[in-house]
Amino acid sequence: MLGRISDFLFDLLFPVSRFESKLKGSTRYREKTVTQWKRQLGLRSATSNKILESLQIFDGHRIRGLIKAGVKSNPDIFLAENCFISRFGEAGKSGEVIFYEFCHAAEGLKRIDDPWRAASLPPGSRIVFVDDLIGTGTQSLDFIKTRLSSTLQSSHRPCLFSVCGTPRGIKAVRDHSTFEVVCALELEESAFNYYDGSNKVFSPEEKQQIQELNERLGQNFFVMGLLVAFFYSTPDNTMPFIWNDGVKFQDGHGRNQSWFALLPRKS
């Protein structure tokens, strides 16, 4: 009873509606649905608000700023003779969006709209493939090994540029491929992994509650407490209760439910 009264008072003082303008930074947010999403969590209001406060949505302005910073910090790559920029991944995926943003943020760089044309580039070319996030590095490595490696000449110098990435994923790509990696923003565990012991945003009890809920909704690939979204989509490395819309699960009372995601992931 005291907990419900406390939550009622907390919601009066700190309504979740104040997060509406922030959430509208994502094209996946359905207007005025944050209260509906919060109601499913079964968490204390203070914890729910911490989640909403911690969630970072990368809009176009921030992405372009990170791209500019990444280019400026790596002149040996981007000012190299015969440096070409292309998307990473299949057409219609996140790499294509970042390629568009890259072309506007770093004008003057040579580009190839079709990454499969990389094979025809001059020997010794520096080819930078751009994407939004390196999570575990598993998906990045799979695409490199199964698709890109066969299209590149042995003399080509490939690089994967990512707007942001986890230390584990960055290391995996560097260690298990011939690609150099440039990451504009490294998602350090103490600041971005809300499950990690070094991150103090949530108490140990809150971390356990959040992890247990996410496990019921389908654990993310990184098994990591990321709260990151981009304006066009939400990566599957982020906590599932943010993006896993419509997934069937059992609530804390054993009842079958369908999850209403805050920022549904674009497939």
Protein architecture, described:
The structure is a single chain. With 267 residues, the protein is of the alpha/beta class. The protein has two domains: 27-58 and 189-258, no CATH class; 60-186, Rossmann fold (3-Layer(aba) Sandwich). Helix content is 40%, strand content 16%. It has helices at residues 2-13, 20-23, 34-41, 45-54, 60-73, 75-78, 94-105, 138-148, 167-176, 189-192, 204-217, 240-243; strands at 56-58, 83-87, 110-111, 126-134, 157-165, 180-186, 228-230, 248-250, 256-258. Strands 3-2-4-5-6 form a five-stranded parallel β-sheet. The protein has a two-stranded parallel sheet with strand order 1-7. The longest helix has 14 residues, at 60-73. The mean pLDDT is 91.
The sequence of SSEs as H and E is HHHHEHHEHEEHEHEHHEHEE
**What share of the residues lie within helices?**
40-55%
Mind telling me the CATH class of the largest domain? Alpha Beta
Q: List the strand order in the largest sheet.
A: 3-2-4-5-6
> Given the structure, what is the number of helices?
12
Alpha-carbon distance between the two ends: 41 Å
Major sheet characteristics: 5 strands, parallel
Total domain modules: 2
Mean pLDDT across all amino acids: 91
CATH architecture descriptor text of the largest domain? 3-Layer(aba) Sandwich
Please name the CATH topology of the largest domain. Answer: Rossmann fold
Strand percentage: 15-25%
* Secondary-structure class: alpha/beta
Flag low-confidence runs: none
> Measured on Cα atoms, how large is the radius of gyration?
20 Å
Q: Outline, from the CA principal axes? A: elongated
How many β-strands, per DSSP?
9
